[in-house]
Write the structure tokens for this entry.
Amino acid sequence: MIAGEASGDMHGAALLRELKKENSSFEFFGVGGDKMQSEGLNLLYHMKDLAFLGFAEVIKHLPFIRRVQNRLIDFVQRENIRTVVLIDYPGFNLRMAAKFKKSGIRVIYYIAPQIWAWGFNRIHKIRKYVDRMLVVFPFEEEIYQKYGVPSDYTGHPLIDRINAHNFISREEFCSNLGIDPAKKILALFPGSRVQEIKAILPAISVAAEKLRKELDIVPVVVSPAHIDEKIYKDIVPGFDLITAKNENYDLLYHSHFGIIKSGTSTLEASVIGNPFLVVYATSPLTYFIGKQLVKIKNLAMANIIAGENVVKEIIQEQLTSENVYSETKSVFFNTEEYERIKKGLRVIREKLGQGGASRSAAKIISRLIDAGE
């Protein structure tokens, strides 16, 4: 199994739990994070070793990436592993799919590459190298099947994860952070990688500080489990930021509004139903190349699923503290706009399915292994 990002580690861990229920004799090896390891994945590499963001970073680390790829191929051949499950992370995993398939290994892909957004020509490689595609959005199944890729719609695993989360009370949450429960909370999600945080946190923290003074609200930054919290003080040394360590869901649930980096967290906020603003910035080179490849008008997955602009997006050169400040303020106490966004988020949640994605995916994978397909 190979997952290379925080969201993939989360979904991979849920899949591992269900696979063990299907067959207790399964053994798991590969690339993942702490969550997958805790569910029984024997790590060959930790995903933090592969946390490269953008084209320039990937090129810089190509020798290391090739060493990782070669070791993974050598390992599955030596141990006679017959099935590989790739989870999201298409830049790395599609290359691995080709290498595994050429070695005669069954390739199952969970959480499909978003070819409908960019790089549609990858469909030909996918058809050639992927034996089964397990998709999490309903419209994806039709796309892959149309082009001859056997696929199944599982629903989105976030539904199960959020439904199963034991949300703590507002009083307990605020007490843990040392904040006044009577004040409204502004949730800041600058990303799960150091490069993302460096690109996004300065603008949103300046805006948040201005909003704190003007509106008497409490900004709180979510800190992923694998990030050293002192990085926030290093990036914005002038601010005394309150951080919530690995408390994404409780922060979203108890906050009034969020400023969230484009990615999985926007789906989490949509499912929980917390209105938010989407922000994103990367290196100029990465953004330029990406802009040539992307074929859709929106970057935020929430807007893509909705088919309309439910939430505002502030991207790249538009990501300034002033823009973030003005957009956030325009919604924070605007009841009509706030309710419009909440209504749109309810529609998005409905489109993500009723739950059971990890269980469905595990049953399909187990069946394919048992049948030797």
Notes: The longest strand covers residues 41-46. The two ends are 18 Å apart (CA to CA). The CA atoms of residues 277 and 328 lie 7 Å apart.
